[in-house]
């Protein structure tokens, strides 16, 4: 992975899909003892999907999170999307609707990922400060600037350990080299991630990443239109589960299987 230590730029644009920022790990969480390297710039944003609405959303009450049966790479990929993509898409950061669930995921992850406690504890500090900021606690007033500094690797870099780790994992999963994703591998990634979800409950928080991959594929004009139309059928079920903070129903999972499994890489 390239090191652009002196070339990092602050990303202040609204990001619509996964290529916006490098996606997390697949096999990377098998090496959680390694100190995260300084990541390169996030890849540029693709055009956001037509139905993208980064504005204020109706807040659904928080729900209990169970990470049992989820592979650790799915958990980290989901945290990547929540805290590097969804966070940036949210115009008013205080309206970010997944603070409670993020905190639960990180705290439960800490119980099972003992060898990665430095990263996870930094993530818990991040989400605790985010919560204070959202609640107008004076102790959280610097959260947004601390986030930007951490992402840009400057000043105190308060959350850099956590954010860099997620970025590096995303690069590995996406097979990003020299700042660019490997061409024509979206279907491979979609199928791989969907297969990782098979033993799980398909909870809403685990669906962000695959939704982003599908949106990215749909928005690339050079992609096969028949495949694009098939994948468009998947999005409403993913979007509804996320909006309602619910797991996918078994019937929905079966329908999505019928669409994704036959796709040719």
UniProtKB/TrEMBL annotation:
PROSITE patterns: PROKAR_LIPOPROTEIN (PS51257). Residues 37-47 have a biased composition (Pro residues). Residues 31-57 are annotated as: Disordered. It comes from the Bacteria. Residues 1-27 form the signal peptide. Keywords: Signal. This is Variable surface lipoprotein.
């Amino acid at each position: 992975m390239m090191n652009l230590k002196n070339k990092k730029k602050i990303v202040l644009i609204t990001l619509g899909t996964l290529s916006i920022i490098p996606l997390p790990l697949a096999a990377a969480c098998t090496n959680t003892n390694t100190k995260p390297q300084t990541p390169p710039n996030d890849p540029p944003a693709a055009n956001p999907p037509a139905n993208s609405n980064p504005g204020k959303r109706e807040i659904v009450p928080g729900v209990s999170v169970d990470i049992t049966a989820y592979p650790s790479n799915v958990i980290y990929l989901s945290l990547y999307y929540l805290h590097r993509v969804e966070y940036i898409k949210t115009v008013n950061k205080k309206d970010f609707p997944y603070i409670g669930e993020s905190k639960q995921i990180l705290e439960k992850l800490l119980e099972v990922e003992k060898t990665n406690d430095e990263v996870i504890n930094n993530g818990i500090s991040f989400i605790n400060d985010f919560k204070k900021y959202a609640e107008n606690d004076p102790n959280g007033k610097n959260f947004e600037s601390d986030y930007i500094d951490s992402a840009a690797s400057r000043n105190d870099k308060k959350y850099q350990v956590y954010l860099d780790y997620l970025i590096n994992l995303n690069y590995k999963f996406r097979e990003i080299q020299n700042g660019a994703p490997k061409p024509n591998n979206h279907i491979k990634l979609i199928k791989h991630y969907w297969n990782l979800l098979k033993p799980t409950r398909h909870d809403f928080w685990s669906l962000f990443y695959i939704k982003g991959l599908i949106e990215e594929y749909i928005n690339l004009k050079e992609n096969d239109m028949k495949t694009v139309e098939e994948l468009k059928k998947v999005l409403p079920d993913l979007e509804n589960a996320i909006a309602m903070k619910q797991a996918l129903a078994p019937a929905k999972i079966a329908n999505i299987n019928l669409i994704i499994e036959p796709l040719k890489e």
